[in-house]
Amino acid sequence: MRGSRLRRAVTAGAAIAALGACSLFGPTRTPPDPLPAVANDVRIVAAWNTSLGARSGIGFAPVAIGDSVWAAAQDGTVARISLDTGQPLWRVSVGKPLTAGVGTDGATTVVATRDGTVVALDEQGRTRWTAPANGEVVTAPAVADGVVLVRTTDNRVLAYEVDSGKRRWSFQRQNPPLVLRNSGGVAMIPGAAFIGMPGGRVVALALDNGAPRWDVPLAQPRGTTELERIADVVGSPLIIGRELCAATYQGRIGCIELANGSPVWLRDFSSAVGLDVDSRGVVAPDGDDVVHAFDRGGVPTWQIKSYQRRRLSAPLIVGSLVALGDLEGNLLWLARADGKLAAVSRTDGKPIVAPPAAVGATLVVQTSGGGLYAFRTP
């Protein structure tokens, strides 16, 4: 059974490389476009940097809450760091390699190991509980509303009690013949969770018992081959107001109603990394590293083609700026209004493959080399 599951999953890079598209994950045969001229009208201050001491990669994104940032590395390192100074508040090893980054509500921090164990740590970094997932976890755990949620490679969503690790429920739907192994996350509000699934579907689940509230297609698989028909939701679905916004690979981008999944707007689109959303609309790079902006009604407002083959990360909107990482370890700051390059911040030169995190004016990005870099915006 385990072998068949592994054969059914492909990395986003393998699929995209097979289809001849550029992406965050596939090999680069042509050098990336040179960076355009920087406007230099925004001053970004490098606040601090530190290292987790080991590689990270896809799915290993920092989480920033309050006065702290949490991060993890593939070797099992988990750390809580002061957002102000960059000094570790604690740093531990769970003793096993990890398959994805951290999830936390600020009190309980959760990671998943390669052997399918979910590990919860308390506020001091001590092990609080462990629980079996009986499968490899492919997304960073989501922690909120007294529940820990994880999704496994065989398309199960598992819920655990945050205090005890007791399994509350599990939900599973059938996989398409071929799926991306991507690090899409989970969006949660009190009482409900929203999960992007293979086949371009988004499902809303009740947190108390896992019952589906709705299950709708964000995109419809198209094409004649299994590779052409991959249309999985990528990145994390994001909630703004009464809407949930998400993007798919070889499918569509758009927003749907939280209450029932009815479309607000949808457009044909392909992304390998996902999107961000604010009160003005959605920003997302496509599979060719063209960065697009849409207003709240889905009308395109700008697109920038200056970053092709840079394998852009998912974006983070920070006030009047949009931050994206690239394969050379650059953090690119685009003007939210028109997409023009406002500033560039350098890190350790290792690819940035996970979206940044921010609290207020402080943004933290994690490189695939395990470096953490904090910057302060105006």
Task: Write a compact overview of the structure shown.
The chain is mainly β and 378 residues long. It has two domains: 1-58 and 283-378, Lipocalin; 61-181, Lipocalin. It is built from two helices and 34 strands.
What does this structure look like?
A 4-stranded antiparallel β-sheet has the order 2-34-33-32, with no helix packed on it. The protein has 378 residues and is mainly beta. The radius of gyration is 19 Å and the shape is globular. It folds into 2 domains: 154 residues, Beta Barrel (Lipocalin); 121 residues, Lipocalin (Beta Barrel). The chain contains 2 helices and 34 strands. Strand 29 and strand 30 form a beta hairpin.
